[in-house]
Amino acid sequence: MTVLRSTRSRGIRVAAGLGVLVVVAAGCTGNSADDGTGSQSSAPRAASDNDAPGKKVVIGFSGPAADHGWLGAINSAAKAEAGKYSDVEFRTAEGTNDASLQISQIETFINDKVDAIVLLPTDGAALTEVATKAMNAGIQVVNVDREFSSPFAARTTILGDNYGMGVSAGTYACKLVKDKNLSNPVIAEIAGIDALPLTQDRSKGFADALKACGQTVDNRVAAAFTVESGEKEASNLLQAAKKIDIIWNHDDDQGIGVMQAFDNANRHEFAFIGGAGSSNAMQWIKDGKMEATVIYPPTQAADGVRLARLLVQQKGLSDLVQVEVPRRIVLNAPVVTKANVDKYLPLGFKS
Amino acid sequence: MSVDATAQNGAPGRSGSPVPDPDRQQTVAPEATHQSRFTALLASSFGRNLGLVIALVLLCVVGLATAGDRFGTFDNAMTILRLASVIGVISVGMTFVISGGGIDLSVGAIVALGSVWATTVATQAMAADVHWIVMVFTAVLVGAACGLVNGVLIAYGRIAPFIVTLAMLAAARGLAEIIAKRRTQIITDRDFIDFFNGNVMGVPVLVIMFALAAVVGWLLLNRTTFGRRTLAVGGNPEAARLAGIKVQRQTAYLYILLGVACGIAAVMIMARTTTGSSTHGQLYELDSIAAVVIGGTLLSGGRGTIVGTVFGVLIFTTLTNVFTLNDLDTSTQAVAKGAIIIAAVLLQQRVAGRSHKT
Predict the structure, then answer these.
(1) Most buried in the list A227, B29, B241, B273, measured by CB within 10 Å?
(2) Reduced to 3 states, what is the DSSP secondary structure of residue A291?
(3) Does residue B123 fall inside a structural domain?
(4) Is B33 within a domain?
(5) CA B189 → CA B107, B117, B130, B195, distances in Å?
(6) Of A270, A196, A265, A279, nearest to A234 (Cα)?
(7) Where does the chain cross the membrane (chain B) (predicted)?
(8) Does B329 contact A at CB distance below 8 Å?
(9) Distance to chain B for A109, nearest Cα, Å
């Protein structure tokens, strides 16, 4: 199972902020909404007309099979985002974990002469060739989450920050150690699939951040991004360590199983930090069952749709001085706690 | 039914076929005495393939009606055929195993292992020194070796094919993960990629490979002793043994043949994705078995049709294409696929039931 997950959330907030700006701008001026030619985005403006209807854009979207809550959220968020724009014609190819099938979907988009393709590849390297072909055919390719192996395969890449996710979790753990004045804390980690680079990145970020406050991971297990594997590995972990102070679990989907294991063993003496940012986890944070979670934004593909539209309409990101869409956007991995959970709850995905 | 008669069922009986089917009368005649001419027609290879042609034509009509300007283009046809080619080559091999009375659940895993083994640093270094054909040989050899293990355990170890190939499914993919360390291995040899992704007179090389596999498979099944032995072993192994056929050896050969087909499919997927990966070929066993079964090959063995298999593959890939063009989701497509499989098998059972009464 290739549950490569990706990234995180900052761009979303920027984008959401932009959206607000635009709405305000449109409400004040109402200038370009009726002439329907928003494409002449010449000079950068503080409040842009980026969201005003412009040239019609046909966007093809293809992602992996939604066999995981986060991936399901990726697909639905992309679709919902496209639905907000009257000038976007959105075509989805059904999700698949077969690289060969996904290649044929992209070939279909090329045959169709779509304007842009938003692609979350089932395997970045395997889709690079066909994405390059699309670029050569003059189609704007936006690469989401799993990177291609060649820079020529995409116009823009939007990614989560797996290393940053570990850093956020580790930094928050350090803060807990300091706040609670723990002298010799037991810190545990429940990772995802260990062989995946994204898991390695997350663990490295966690370890590096802990090092900053002189801590290390005392107990570590690796699950497989599924509820059952989370339950199994967390049970093992609780057996291995009689007392734990802080646990970081990489993934809120497997977190459902992890929480079940805690309940079964009636062990809640530790601060439980999650990862990804599902609505379950956020509800737990609200209810006080969970300390925090680190977001890996499931809205990357939705951002990809927006970027694709801007690229085709030759607009820039209006909060940047530069008039072109950036080559590469890495989203932030913020920590959600009881203090700010209400702000993030709308972004939470259903496991 | 005699062995010779069943052997002919794989012949392309569809209208306009250039290949004559001299023995068809033999299949139809005894049944016609018991049944109406219509059911007799259905029971013949002609009738079965006619059903598939109608299904495919219907799909194309739906495609043209719903996405005419985008469906009915040469480029789209080639997109369908390129997608069909990988699973098609496997399905041709699968036709032999199934009509020989077996089943193979490990094809996807063997494809993954072949693609990984052929793209390791060591193999690619050797390929760079010699020629990219080294990678092709590696993939085919790995496929053949897996098929040999399957075949020997099934034929001589007398373990059920379902169990042996289920074990191979787990083991081959596991080995692929170990070798690749679950990373995707990128192919650096542009000549290899350009050759297999190229076109000959506008037709993609992958599609030509599929066509060649189908033609060779058809000849092997319908025009050689090997094919007749396969159907004899699948239809009634005891009778085949009494007739002097070395049943065990023949069975082993069938799995090796399918292993080779998987090796070729691994090369094709390597070219398509420019990578080798332990995640390649997931669920290919189900796709290929489904294509073979709706094509009209009997799951219980004894009757096999390459032409039907090719239609089966094309029906599923065209269905996928029409769904993609119409922006429909996976779940709907899965339901449609399931319905097609059940309809095909129901039809087949009726046909088989009638012919057994004779």
Answers:
(1) B273
(2) coil
(3) yes
(4) no
(5) 26, 15, 12, 10
(6) A265
(7) 50-68, 80-99, 105-123, 130-153, 159-180, 200-221, 252-271
(8) yes
(9) 9
At A73, list the tokens.
């959220």
Residue A35 token pair: 């002439």
Q: Which domains does chain A have, with CATH numbers?
A: 10-160+299-330 (3.40.50.2300), 162-295 (3.40.50.2300)
Q: What is the pLDDT of residues B83-109, one digit of tens each?
A: 999 999 999 999 999 999 999 999 999
The upper half-sphere exposure of residue A31, i.e. CA atoms within 13 Å in the direction of its Cβ, equals 11
pTM for this entry:
0.78
Pick the residue from chain A with its C-alpha nearest to B75: A111
Provide the 8-state DSSP code for A151.
Answer: G
Q: Which helix (H) or strand (E) holds B93?
A: helix B74-99
Tell me whether residues A126 and B274 touch, CB distance under 8 A. Answer: yes
Taking the CA of residue B33 and the nearest CA in chain A, the distance in Å comes to 47
Q: Is the ipTM of this complex over 0.95?
A: no
Is position B29 within any domain? no
Residue A134 burial (CB count, 10 A): 24
Residue B173: which CATH number? 1.10.3470
**Domain extent at residue B290:** 73-324
The CA-atom distances, in angstroms, between A296 and each of A4, A15, A118, A348 are: 12, 16, 19, 10
Shortest CB distance from A108 goes to which of B86, B325, B329?
B325
